[in-house]
Amino acid sequence: METLCWINHRVVPADQAAIPVMDHGLLYGDGIFEGLRFYHGRVFKLEQHLRRLERSARAIALQLPYPLDEIASILNQVVTQYPAPSGYLRLVVTRGAGNLGINPRHCRQPSLFVIAGSLQVVSAAARGGIDLHLASTRRVPAECLDPRVKSLNYLNNILARIEAHQVGADEAVMLNTRGFVTEGTVDNIFIVDGGVLATPPLSAGILDGITRGCILEIAARAGIACVERALTAYDLLNADECFLSGTGAELIAVQSIDRQPLRDPERPLFHRIERLFQAHIEECCAGLVC
Fold first, then answer.
1. Angle, CA of 13, 17 and 19, to the nearest 5°
2. Which residues, 6+ apart, have CB-to-CB distance to 118 below 8 Å?
3. Which of 71, 127, 192, 285 shows the smallest number of beta carbons within 10 Å?
C-alpha cells in the first residue's frame, strides 16, 4: 500500500515529500507528534488526539501553524485520498527551519506534515502473544521531561527496544528511576491479577495514552474491576495476564516476560477486552459514540 504525505498544502507520495535539512525537528528532535488510526474512512478519537497535540505544543512553547479545526480538515483530506479505508496517520509539527544553533528563536515558521500508511508494531506472527523484556534502560524521569509531551525525541525508547531485540524479545517494558513499571517503548501496559485489571498511574511517568484511557472506560462500563496503581517487576512476573495498548499497537497480548510464561495462557480477560475494544471502534466509525 502506497504511503502518502500531506505537506505544503498538497498530498504527495511519501517518497516525494521533503523537509529542509535545517529543520530543528530533524536537528534536535524539537517538535511533537500524534499517531492516529482511521477505520472505515473515519479518524478514531480525533478530538482527543488534537487536544493532546495542542497541550504538547503549549508545554514546549510551540505555536501550531494552523488552528485545530484546520488540522482536522487536513487529516480528513489525507484519509479521503488514501487508497484503503483503514490505516495509520502520523501528524508531525516541528519548530521549523532555523540555523545550526539550538536557539528556537531562529525558527521563524513551524512546520506541519501528515503521513498516511500502514503500521504494525509487531509482526503478524507475534500478534498471538509477544515476548516482553524488562529493560535496564530507565524511562526519562518526569522531573526532567513531562511524559505527557509527545515529543519527537524517542532515543530513550529506541535504546530499550534495541536491548529487547538483543535478547530475542519483541518489546521492552521500562521502569522509572524508582524501580516502578512505566510503559513499553511505544505502548502502555496492563496486567491482570486475580481478575483485576491494573495499569500504572500517570504519576509513574507515562504517556497519557488515548487507547489506555479508552480501555479504562470500556472496563468500567463492562463491570471489570480496574485500578491504576504502582507496579513493579514482581507484579509483572506474577501476573495472570499482561497486554500492551496504544494507537499504533492497538492491543497486543504478552505471552512471556523475560522468558517466563504468564500464569494464564488462555488470556480470557484480554480476549474479552479485545472484543469490547473492537466493538467500540465500530461504534465510533458508525458515528454512534466516540
1. 165
2. 1, 3, 84, 87, 88
3. 127
Residue showing cell 517466563? 260
pLDDT for 205-214, tens place per residue? 999 999 999 9
Question: Of 208, 226, 210, which Cα lies nearest the Cα of 272?
Answer: 226
Please give the mean pLDDT across all residues of the chain.
Answer: 95
- In this predicted structure, what is the pLDDT of residue 285? 81
Length of the chain measured in residues: 290
| Of the listed ranges 83-87, 198-202, 229-233, 282-286, the one predicted with least confidence | 282-286
- The pLDDT tens digits of the residues spanning 203-252 come to 999 999 999 999 999 999 999 999 999 999 999 999 999 999 999 999 99
Phi, psi at residue 122, to the nearest 5°?
-130, 165
- Kindly name the residue from 37, 42, 150, 212 that is annotated as catalytic: 150
Q: Which fold has domain 124-285?
A: D-amino Acid Aminotransferase; Chain A, domain 2 (3.20.10)
Residue type, 7: I
**Is residue 45 among the annotated active site residues?**
no
